[in-house]
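Second attempt. The first submission of MULE transposase domain-containing protein had a stray character pasted in from the spreadsheet, which I only caught after the job came back as garbage. Lesson logged: always re-copy from the clean sequence file. Corrected sequence (647 aa) follows.
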Amino acid sequence: MITEDLLRISSNQGSESVENDDANSNYTFSPGGSMYFVPVCVDENCKHFVDQIFDSLEAGLNLYKDYGRSCGYGTRRSAEKQDEDHTVIKEHNQDFVPEMGRQFMRVNREMSCISWNFAFDAGTANIGTSKSFFFMKELVGGYANVGATVRDFRNFRKDLKEYVGERDAQMIVEKFNAKKESCKSFYFAYDLDKEGHLTKLFWVDSVARRNYELYGDAVSFDATFDTNKYNMVFCPFTGIDKHEKCVTFGFALLSKEDIPHFKWAFDQFLKAIGRNPVCIITDQCPVMKQAIPMSFHATEEFPATKHRLCMWHIMEKFPVKLGNFISKETDLMEKMKKYTWSSTIEPDEFEKGWKSVLKEFKLEGNRWLWEMYAIRTSWIPAFFRDKPMFCLIRTTSRSESENNFFSQFHRQSDTLCEFYLHFESAMDKQRYETAWLNQEGSSTIPATITKLFMEAEAAQVYTRPVFYKVQQEMVALGYDMRIQTIGPLVDGIKCYEMKDVMLKDQVFKVKLLGVSDDFKMMENASLKQTNIWFSFQKSMNKTGVILEKLAYVEKTVKQLVSDLGDDTYLSKKAHIEMLMGPHPREDLTIHVSKECSNKGSGTCPNKNQARVDPNVDINEDRPKKKKARVNPTVDITESDDDRVESS
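This time the job returned cleanly.
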């Protein structure tokens, strides 16, 4: 069957060019029957011609690359030779990529520094590759303008991890050394095992030091998991600031949860901060119970730190230790909470109430309850009511809230370098919110309810959360009448002169001490890039949609690009080095931590899991265990600590 194309060949012998259906190219046939394609370039600025002169070789290559992009074919640089040809060959032996498919060509999928920075910053904010790619699409106005695919974004993240590799631990230590040189108030310490693997890491910056000076009386300490690929536990020292928000005093990464590791972290914290906290609250971890008095003991300058246990964890064990029926179907917990949670009763009143509840429900023989009673001075608020700052924290909820906050930034697959980048992003957010609350409190005054001068004064002195508590107490006490003067005692009778409103004129002046930033001593190039970007945005806002102004901006930008030169600023490897930090110059002396096995990492074997002996045949018949019969009348004094008692 003779096709239409063959008929054309026979009629014009291949001399006539035929336009393709998609108007992307024209094709011709040689006398030998070979098909050749000639591109149709719409952009006049990309066309090349004989005797065209370029400023440099790179400029000529870039023009030909742009010409290929416009026509729909890829280009690459292979061999070089010096010769005078004076010809331009436009024919190709392959068809060109149509308009819709050109965005997927390799020549159009070269990630630039902007794309690298965007993918890196998105990862620092814990934004996945897919979402960061979609955000980039919205910024540039379409998928075709991104210059990459989702796979390219993923490959860049992979390149970051491969760049770090086994140098992870030494790179993070060298990064801390650089921060120490630039800011003397930055403190860090680390420890290695016999094989040179990183096992402990502690650091604290100047902002954390200042926060501890202001709010470091009560500290909450807890460990969180799944923050890095080595299963090292992240242990922040947390407190409460003047806005009743979480504030962090110090940070530690530990490979184990044992006494030496916790003691080392506490010792480094004390060495960096300089004084014992008044109170530190943890859960009922027996390891912390032994490590805390070893580090925060009494000295000539500071008293010993009081170790307080989390009330919430203890109260949550009541249904487990006493049984669901007696805990949920009776009013035991309601009566017990009346004495355990109250901070207004005296210790002797608590002791009488505790014993009366045990007697009412016939729990005098429960060993666990008496164990909790024996350590009552460590968790009952009645024993802390007269000690300053002990009422600030009664549970480890602050630490759990802090751990949940950090979990929004960290991934289990993070290297230590990635972990620290995400950590800095989290701290920037926390400190930004604190600065915003400070500005709001200094620029506005909350509304008062009473006519008392004391309330108006409190509105100017206290922060919002503290003031609202003071205001609530004033309203609760009744504020219509106030004591003006108190007369002397005459014949056993004292006279009070009352007045509706007590007027008083007094002004408080509060000096705010600034905190030096770690990066104020270094000139940051990214700050200049940000300023340039915002200046460009202002210029674009002035142009609007006026075509003449847009054409002027486009011409100016092209001229600026030409003036800056054709050389690429950084290669991909050099750009990754700028983002992640340089490789260690010498041989590795600090190796990455071994995969840790902790109770929250998911790698710790279950104590109830059967251990398989390789020398024992698992298919061998084993005698079946007899089920123990539970006698409901068994004396509960014989129960051990881990047994669940039934009522």
